[in-house]
Amino acid sequence: MSCPGCEKVPKQPQGAGTLYILPAQPHAAATIVEALVGDGLTPEQHGDSILAVPVEPGALNRIMALLGGALTPQEQAACQANFFADGGDWSPETLLATRPLDVLVARSQFVWLNELIEDLRLQMHFQPIVHADDGRTIFAYESLARGLDHAGQLISPGRLFPAARAANLLFHLDRAARISAIRQSHQHRIQQPVFINFNPTAIYDPGFCLRTTFKEVRRLGIDPANFVFEVVETDSVTDETHLKSILEEYRRQGFRIALDDLGAGFGSLTLLKQIRPDFIKLDRELVDGVHWDNYKASITAHLIRMGKDLQVRIIAEGIEQPEDWHWLRERGVDYVQGFHFARPASPPPVLG
Q: SUPFAM superfamilies in the record, alphabetically (predicted)?
């Protein structure tokens, strides 16, 4: 679908207005009313089930925190809700088409995330992908996003991406990370290919949602073939046709494609045939300990043979033990990546 205006990072309103809530169950409605009345608010009833809560300027985040504490995550997700500023048009039909209450609650908790995305306060850490035969010659770098707070302290991806998913800001964070990876790899004068993670569920309309990515590459005068877009979280892909349309747009613009975590689940294997990537990355759970674990060794050896048959270049990631590297090298893996060789860093590590 088309998404004009979707690149603008949504902000939690701070003015006066009305919060409309459509609880899914009567007990949730009763819990909401009890919490609001206990806070001195008087919700009005619209029809049989819609609650209208008057909101004073600057009070929406406090009300969201109140409801977040009163309702379980499941109850929040089951409620539809939206805030309308004073003077805005509202009808029951507009409420039915809006977002779950848990998204509004999350956005009130993660105001810092909106600001971070809008300001592009991301630092990309680059991890070398090296040739398997010598373990020293850098073939490429993978860019990995870290957030920066106002004091310049790092915010880990383990905090960054779950917050974005909860607040329905994954598209905006994914876009910001793509732009930051392109800019910072250029600033660091990286000559090798750069792998950039992207979550296909964060893309709505490929032609529209990816245009800023393409524009940034053209602005900097970089050969698009220098970037490899790496499909992550493959098991969350439910629409293979949509994914193929995204990757076709990447390829049409001259970029290359990698499939991450091959062997992590059925999803990645079914996608292999569909998207025909330029690179596949073996799942780190299979790679770690492959030299002594016969079960992992059997599966990994099969995946390597399959990759060779398909003429796809193979990257093994997550290598921490030299014995695993030697095992993989002997079976024809093209490239390797992991703490054994270098940790992600900014500026990018240079191997001797």
A: EAL domain-like
User: What are the structure tokens assigned to 153, written together?
Assistant: 């302290």
Which residues does residue 142 pair with via DSSP β-bridges, in sequence order? 127, 195
Residue 237 pLDDT exceeds 70: no
Of 78, 109, 140, the last residue of a domain is: 109
Domain count, the chain: 2
CA dist., res. 216 & res. 229, Å (int): 15
Question: Strand ranges (DSSP E) for 162-308?
Answer: 194-198, 227-231, 256-262, 279-282
What is the tens place of the pLDDT at every residue in 138-165? 999 999 999 999 999 999 999 999 999 9
Domain boundary among 55, 83, 109: 109
Please state whether beta strands 194-198 and 227-231 pair in parallel, antiparallel, or not at all (unpaired).
parallel
pTM: 0.88
Q: Are residues 57 and 175 in the same domain?
A: no
What is the 3-state composition of the chain as percent helix, strand, coil, each rounded to the nearest 5? 45, 20, 35
Q: Which CATH number belongs to the domain containing residue 299 in this structure? A: 3.20.20.450
Rg of the chain over all Cα atoms, to the nearest angstrom: 24
Q: What was the pLDDT predicted at 176?
A: 93
313 pairs with which residues across the strands? Answer: 279
Note whether 126 and 271 are same-domain residues.
Answer: yes
For residue 64, give its domain range: 17-109
Whether 180 contacts 122, CB under 8 Å:
yes
- Domain CATH code at residue 35: 3.30.70.120
Question: Is there a single domain that holds both residue 211 and residue 274?
Answer: yes
Tokens of 277: 């990537």
Please check whether residues 92 and 138 belong to one and the same domain. no
The DSSP annotation for 152-194 comes to S-EE-HHHHHHHHHHTT-HHHHHHHHHHHHHHHHHHTT--S-E
